[in-house]
Design a protein that fits this description.
Blueprint lengths: L1 E5 L4 E5 L5 H15 L4 H5 L6 E7 L7 H12 L4 H6 L3 E4 L3 E7 L4
């Protein structure tokens, strides 16, 4: 696998070795996780078979600021089952996006 970083243009290129595109996609996922704000240690877990990342753009559900605030609150909840489930995974918060990285069984 060949990974090149063009710092001037701020571009990372991942080329698979032979026909192994799956590994290149795993590396791409780890790089994206770092750009979303996950630590490198958290992102490296995506290279294994047991972890994956799911990106949810909340703007797909609402553009109203009040509804967005309410939706963000519902994602985390208050002492609910989903909140306890999220404790097993890593969550990074952007203003209108949530990136969730964790074991495949919980995503």
């Amino acid at each position: 696998m060949l990974i090149t970083v063009d710092e001037k243009r701020k571009v990372v290129t991942v080329r698979p070795a032979g026909d192994n595109v799956y590994d290149a996609l795993k590396v791409e996922s780890a790089i994206l996780a770092i750009t979303y704000g996950f630590s490198p240690e958290q992102a490296m877990k995506l290279l294994g078979e047991d972890y994956s990342m799911q990106v949810i753009d909340l703007k797909d559900f609402t553009r109203d600021p009040q509804a967005m605030k309410r939706l963000k609150g519902r994602i985390i909840g208050s002492e609910g089952k989903f909140k306890r489930s999220l404790q097993e995974v890593y969550v990074h918060r952007d203003c209108s996006r949530r990136e969730i990285c964790g074991p495949n069984r919980t995503l």
